[in-house]
Amino acid sequence: MFPEDGMRRVPVERLEVFCAQVCRGFGLSDPQARALADSLVFAQCRGVTSHGLMRLEHYMARVEKGLINLSADMPFTMESGALACLDAENGLGQLAGRKATRKAMELAGRWGLGQVSVANSNHFGTGAWFSLPAARAGFAALNLSNASPAMAPYGAAQPLLGTNPVSLALPRGPGKEPLVLDMALSAVSRGKIRVFAAAGEKIPSTWGLNAQGEPTEDPREVLEGSLCPIGGAKGSGLAFLVDLLCGALTGTGLTGDTRNILSSQGPSRTGHLFLCMDVARFLPVAEFGRRVDQCVGRMKALDPVAPGGEVLAPGEPELRQMEQCRREGVPLPDALCRTLDRLAQRAGCPAL
Description:
This protein is α+β, with helices and mostly antiparallel strands. The protein folds into two domains: 7-64 and 323-347, Malate/L-lactate/L-sulpholactate dehydrogenase, four-helix barrel (Hypothetical Oxidoreductase Yiak, Chain: A, domain 1, Orthogonal Bundle), CATH 1.10.1530; 74-185 and 248-305, Ribosomal Protein S8, Chain: A, domain 1 (2-Layer Sandwich), CATH 3.30.1370. Helices cover 40% and strands 16% of the residues. It contains eleven helices and eleven strands. It has helices at residues 12-25, 30-45, 56-64, 93-111, 128-136, 190-199, 219-224, 233-248, 285-300, 316-328, 334-347; strands at 7-10, 76-80, 83-87, 113-121, 139-145, 166-170, 179-183, 208-209, 226-227, 270-278, 330-333. The strands form three sheets. The protein has a seven-stranded mixed beta sheet with strand order 2-3-4-10-5-6-7, sandwiched between helices. The chain starts with 6 loop residues before the first strand and ends in a 5-residue tail after the last helix. The relative contact order is 0.17.
């Protein structure tokens, strides 16, 4: 056991093995367990803790209640030229997204562009988990997902739109990790709001609204109310269009139909979109990577606003966090460690 205010650093490999063991204990196959574990540890290492190990308990709860189909075959129900549609059959979003990304890469290799829509899926974790491998293979990779109602449309008081994440990754020069943008369309994630609520701390009033649609600094009121979109009306509009592309277009559900990962009311009804573009159709990937590096260099050479500060490229803070975790281990709060150990006990596997 650890002190109430303690942190424990756990090697990345140990976390991956532990999470996979827990997943297998709850009935996941070995490939399912490995994929889910890799996705969660990836997010945790990048500092995206709202999509990291805190989610393991939520996934296992849905598995226990039969709300995730572990027998899903995930067939392609349509393929026409550079387009395809995959039916996730209410299976794990990570597996659906990985299969869809590979198909999008295959189609892009054949046609120059590949797009795969995914119907009837679940929460798929963090979008960079899919876009980064595709960018490493020489593709410009984009993925979108809808999500359960969390944001009030601009000018409204009640939540209807999901946080609807967007991830875009581009190749860089030899030996460099791709440039990646991975973000929700809310000012912050609900997971981050929950962290502040648990700590009893205030939040900026620009993060969320109370149940009456008024800005608030109380995270508990936001959890009963609504998140704010990034950029006001612009973020609200973008989130709505992402929802239409991922939900309405796939036939999975209309805006507002997707269920939260914490819900026990039935299938999630999440939809995704994955797109890959073959960079080599325009110019050699290495040359494009060098051009990207030049542009990043120009940006980073600008004077920072804060004395002694630094201008960072998209994805750079997450990359540094991941590199530190691989060197020093992943920092985990003691409360999370206790939750993981309780899960391990229920799964019949060793504690963390």
